[in-house]
Every structure is written in C-alpha cells, then in structure tokens.
Amino acid sequence: MKPDQSIPSHDDTVVPGQSTGQHPGNTTRRATGLGFIAIALWSLLALFTAMSGAVPPFQLAALCFLIGGSIGLLDTARRGMLGVWRQRPAVWLLGVGGLFGYHFFYFTALRNAPEVEAGLIAYLWPLLIILFSGLLPGETLRTGHVIGGLIGLVGAVVIVSGGGFDFQTEYGWGYAAAACCALIWSSYSVLSRRFGDVPSDIVWFFCLASGVLALVCHGAFEETRWPATPLQWFAVLALGVGPVGLAFLVWDRGMKAGNIQLLGAASYAAPVLSTLALIAFGYAEPTPQVLVAAALVTLGAIIASRAGRTVKG
C-alpha cells in the first residue's frame, strides 16, 4: 500500500475558528468516517499479533511504531511537511505520552494482572472519551451518549470476559496500570481536539519517538526474539502499517473534527470485530457471546448516534 494512496491530505486538519471551505456537517461526517477507519484497523490488532509469533511485547511495539512512523515520514517528506515536528512542548508531551504511555501501562498491566481483568479495565477508555468530551468547548454531552457508551461497555465485557471474570486484590498494581491505560488514551484522544491547529502529520513523529522509547524498554525488560517465518514478518509489517501506524493518523483526524461521542461509543466494536477476525482465521472458536456483544455494541452506537442528531437539531 503506497502512503499517498492511503493517507488523507494534511489539509483536512481543522483549525478551530478557521473556515474549511466545506459545510461543517460534511467536515464532521468525513472526520468521523476517518475515525471509523481507525476502529476497523484496531480490530486487526489481535489477529496480526497472534500471527507475529513469540516476539516480546515491547520489541513488537518498537518494531511496529518504527515501521509505521517511517512509512508515514516518507509521505510527509514527499509533501514537504517535515517541518511539522517543530511544535510546542505540550504537543509532544500529549502525543508521545498518549501513544507510548498507553502501551507502557498496558504491557505493565498484563505482566501484573490476569489478561481478562486487565483488558476489561483498560477498555474503559471509550466510555471515558464520551464523558470527557463534555468538557470540550462547543460539545454537549447528552444522556443518550452516556447510555450508548455504557451499553457498548457491557458488550465489551461480554466479548472480552467470555462471560466470567474475577477481580482479586493481589493484582492491584496490574489493575491500577490498566486504569492508567484507560485514562491516558481517553485523555490523549479528547485533548487532541484542543490542538486542532496542529497538522496530523505530527503523529508520525510521535510514532518514531514512541518506537525509540519502546526499544529502550525492550532492552531493559525483555530478551530479543525475532519473527521466525515470512508470515510472522508479514504480520509485524502489517501491524506497523495499519493498527500501529495509519490508525493513529486517522484517529487524530476523527478526534479533532469528528463526532467524538459517536466515535467513543463505536470504539467498543473493536473487540467484537477483533474476535470475529480471529475466528475467521482459525485463532478462536465462535461462541454465542460474539453475537450478544455485537448486538450490544451496535445498539450502543445507534443510541449515541441518535443523541448526536438531537444535539444538532
């Protein structure tokens, strides 16, 4: 996939108070659609990770961030946008803190708590996005948004837990790290709108910086294990291009100009779609929970969408 075929122009970035030359509704729908692309790409994260073999988490994150950032940087250079890295410190703190911070605490959570429980806590981030969005200028948080997010959360619980989970106090540090994941990613996502004047191309530099930090953590905590087959290398490349590359760019567009509450509720589709992808490629077995979770997530997104139309009306 060539960068210029998949990466929207940086001119789509919406600057607060600046006219885009398009109808505001069209701009919002386009940005929301880009956010949906990020959710779809993240639904492939588990599949490609399973295909990548036994590469340690921080090593895998470093490879993927560096691959995604490097490919994006080529497109940025082609369009003469390399100077975009010159941003105020707050932009870098938010971007690198969001991308690397989330992954650092997620891997920490998995090291110190059972995967199911840690995953459920970490997946509070879509609901937190909905709640935090009410603090943004010009955004109105309605009851329908919260209800839609809660229904989506129930769907995520059904699909991630498989119908059962058991929180134990001995894993408190792991649970706390998972809670940091949810807080970091939701804060990064919502606060991105406050930096709407920053072109989304900066995301590629965030990826490269996060890749370097992940490489440092790999050296400190892990033993190096490279992919052993061409299929595993393909999976690593695919992760870098999509779920750990392009997804962050289009998510930035969605958060800066899209329907943030709808994107928050729709994010609960990622674990459902992820499970369906695993089933399709033989890495998981189909269960009734998949259908239940899919119905709940869909219902939650519909409710949140209708609440958004009520606000505009």
Mean pLDDT: 87
Number of helices: 14
The profile of the biggest β sheet is: none
Computed over alpha carbons, the radius of gyration is 19 Å
| Distance, first to last CA | 40 Å
Number of strands: 0
Overall, the morphology is: globular
- The class by helix and strand makeup works out as mainly alpha
Series of H and E elements: HHHHHHHHHHHHHH
Low-confidence stretches: 1-22
Secondary structure: helix percent: over 70%
Beta-strand content bin = under 5%
Kindly summarize this structure in a few lines:
The chain has helices spanning 3-6, 24-42, 45-51, 57-78, 89-112, 115-122, 125-133, 143-161, 172-191, 202-221, 230-257, 260-266, 269-280, 288-312. With 313 residues, it is mainly alpha-helical.
Describe it.
By secondary structure, the protein is mainly alpha-helical. Helix content is 72%, strand content 0%. The longest helix has 28 residues, at 230-257. The N and C termini lie far apart (40 Å). It has helices spanning 3-6, 24-42, 45-51, 57-78, 89-112, 115-122, 125-133, 143-161, 172-191, 202-221, 230-257, 260-266, 269-280, 288-312. The chain is globular, with a radius of gyration of 19 Å.
Main features:
single chain, about 325 residues, mainly alpha, 14 helices, globular, disordered N terminus
Write the layout of secondary structure elements.
Layout: H1 3-6, H2 24-42, H3 45-51, H4 57-78, H5 89-112, H6 115-122, H7 125-133, H8 143-161, H9 172-191, H10 202-221, H11 230-257, H12 260-266, H13 269-280, H14 288-312
Helix pairs in contact: 2-11, 2-12, 2-13, 3-11, 4-10, 4-11, 5-9, 5-10, 6-8, 6-9, 7-8, 7-9, 7-12, 8-12, 8-13, 8-14, 12-14, 13-14
